[in-house]
Design brief:
CATH superfamily of the largest domain: Polyphosphate kinase middle domain
Shape: globular
CATH class of the largest domain: Alpha Beta
Number of helices: 19
Strand content: 15-25%
Structural class: alpha/beta
Number of domains: 4
Amino acid sequence: MKNFTEESMPYINRDVSWLAFNHRVLQEAIDPAVPLFDRIKFLAIYSSNLDEFFKVRVANLRNLVRVGKKTKKKLNFDPKRTLKKVLKIVNQQQTDFSRIFEEEILPELGTHKINLLLSADLNSEQSEFVDAYFHNNLLPFVQPVLLVKKRIRPFLNNGALYMACNLRQKEDENGERQYALVKVPSDHLPRFIKLPSSSNSHDFMMLDDIVRRSVHYLFPGYIVKDTFSIKLTRDAELYIDDEFSGDLLQKIRKSLNNRNIGPAARLVYDREMSDELLNFLMECFDLEEMDLLPEGRYHNNSDFFKFPDFEMNHLKQAPLPPLPYKSLEQSDNFFESIAQRDHINHVPFQSYESVVRFFEEAATNPDVTHIKIVQYRVAKKSRIMKALMAASQMGKQVSVFIEVKARFDEENNLDWGEKLAKAGVTVHYSFPGLKVHSKIALVTKVEKNQPKLYAYLSTGNFHEDTARVYSDLGLFTADKKLTNEIARVFSFLETVKVPGQNFKHLLVGQFNLREKLVDFIDKEIKNAKAGKAAKIILKMNSLQDHKMILKLYEASTAGVKIQLMIRGICCLIPGIKKVSENIEVRSIVDRYLEHSRIFIFHNNGNEKIYLSSADWMVRNLSYRIEVAFPLYDEAIRKEVLDFIDIQLKDNVKARLLDRKQLNEYYKNGSDIATSAQLETYFYLKRKE
């Protein structure tokens, strides 16, 4: 391998790579094999993803550009060039989005008698209905605002829809054009309005188009020449200085209060808008060229999550009801079942009920004295949190570590923290300088007058809602090798005192995670150079860390065979001669979000298998408390290896990742179509 440095090695910018991931989401909306309503759902997922990307990542790029050359010298990339490339890619994707919706989705809806109507399409009955709907439902919410140059600009709500109107006074045909804004109250009313229809059809209208049709009622002295939809999103990154003193909790609260009034991150506008109106809006809201993003007629397309199904379930994917994890769910003695052997559950293919029961059993069992848990993201309605509060009220010692820097979940986490504290739970919040991302829980139960520890370790959050759509693995164990070290992790979180003993089994961020992963790769390099079999299989959400990528390049050059399953960001470039020719990268995007992290090192035939909360990103490996845990039970090890084998055989939803980022579908030459998620479900069903 060439003598690359971290700065000179082959590397794809993380934001550019993320856009390639979101394109894979968009591919699901393009795929005619995906049921119609699910294609619409993937349009919503794509749009929701992109909104968050602009609020955080693009806002950050813009800020770096505005800071200027001094910051550029400290970075290993050019923010201005990256921003330009990002906007070019997004513009092309938005064009594809509009084409998919207008030329594919809408016509296919029409074949099922589901019709999106515009004002010109309405019959007399529907026209009367829309007029009445506007006056009875919309009128209280729509407040027109005339825009005047060099006046105080109106404040646009973050992410809200508006109609920008081009007006002319009725008496003055040659007078100067005027402009106004009208809010589309999609935060108060449904986005999709069902219209009176014949018995064999389903007609509906977008709320935007009802406002567009009726806006003339709001300007009685004017002729409305044109209307175009716009949306302004603001910088949602939390600017928190991680000093090692001060009240971090108050900083979070202050930043949350400022989030909706942050600087503009982008103006989304209808690409049919005239240059004159667009230039006026740019001047009015003090926007630059890099703040603009053209889209189609409709924005806030994450609202497609609520697209009406008209009771046509045949246009959706056949459901895969979660399989019961009978070994625990039907156990007469829950903790005894864990004491006898380790258990692993695989949501959403298997039910999350065993995880919920872990906490509910702990809450009601009279021999349980302590419960500890890390809360990163949690459902708004959570049986787990209720069980913890009930346990505290029964006199048990309950300790919850709440990560208040979980992006876009800060407010929910703070609310739960207050509820837990009121119930008597000991609540620990984030400490400055570190983010806690591990997904661990520990229960102490007195057995034969001695404390016995039970743990649940997972790749995913304690979140009953996402457990229905995120593919994650969780381990129930009473193995002292693991539970004693988990107790040490909690001791550190509660006291911020470094454990006196080293971690021998767990890989823990801030202590030994990065170092041990490098050691495992070095062992494979050594074996390859000695002519022994050497192989690494890694499954994760994101691969971005420069040092780890450089180490994987080194392993590839030494002859180590490396197979990567990366759902999202992948900054590594596979297939480069004499650099990464032994590395193959695939990505699966399907009905469930691939979220589990699995690290497998061949180790000369004695495989080391770890599950983890950590992706290989700088933030995870250097600035977070993460936990990777080994699998020791042979039956569980085999199940995870079988799962990985199924993933690697996917020739339906797997894409190849490379320098070109074309997301070409992986074909393995087999005549048998294998969808990893479907096959995993039926593998577990056969096993059950």
